[in-house]
Amino acid sequence: MNADEIDCRLIEKESWLAQVEWLAEVDSTNRFLANDPLSGRTLPALVGANAQTAGRGRGSNSWWSASGSLTFSIVFDPGQFSIPTSFLPRMSLSTGMAVRNAVARWLPESLVQVKWPNDVYVQGRKIAGLLIESHPANPNLLIVGIGLNVNNSLQSAPQQLQEKATSIIDVSGSEASRMDVLIQLLQDLEFEWKRIATASDFLDEYRNHCYLSGRNILVNDGVDEIGGLCEGVDAEGALLVRLPVGVQRVFAGTIEVIGE
């Protein structure tokens, strides 16, 4: 098996997934599952693709995908992991930590951090992003989409991305098995999701790896823009921004780090 080959049956055998499908190309794995009535799927199910022509990020953002990346989406019932509805706002934090931990296993000598609300950074450059949505046909189900740069060197990316993003191969200098990375990531997702409502140290761990903490940032929610010092996240997953009038809690928006 070469470094980029994906064996769907082996993933099903070695993970908690009931069904895995891998496509040569798709516009977006999240959109693919959102348009799927799921009548023929056994959940939890994963759909991945070697290439995404219109990969989606948060809001109107897109995800650049090239040969060698891992791009996939999982549809599942949060109840499978005993996640109470009241803890669903933490899903983005929990999923980000799982991706962060999986990447750190492959790059143990690098600084790997989570950037609220949905990115993972290595040495100050983006290596992964995620998007969480409810399934249109069944709002009780979640679709978690993840894009991770593995063997897709950013040397082939558009010029504007080369200084802002990276990949496992760019940092380590060698290829990694996409299968091994994916299976490890699935194990980390299972671990983080199962403890989302019970782990007393979860928020402390997240804060220890928060890229934005201590940085001056601009937050744009599509209507207003605020700027201030990031003081981490609170128990509900809101970003805390210190303003002249006090601390403001932010639940959604695009983030720009001032001076970067």
Automatic annotation (TrEMBL):
It catalyses: biotin + L-lysyl-[protein] + ATP = N(6)-biotinyl-L-lysyl-[protein] + AMP + diphosphate + H(+). This is biotin--[biotin carboxyl-carrier protein] ligase. Keywords: Biotin, Ligase. PROSITE patterns: BPL_LPL_CATALYTIC. Residues 15-197 form the BPL/LPL catalytic domain. InterPro entries: aa-tRNA-synth_II/BPL/LPL, Biotin_CoA_COase_ligase, BPL_C, BPL_LPL_catalytic. One of its GO terms (cellular component) is cytoplasm. GO terms for molecular function: biotin--[biotin carboxyl-carrier protein] ligase activity. It holds the Pfam family BPL_LplA_LipB. Its EC number is 6.3.4.15. It comes from Thalassoglobus neptunius.
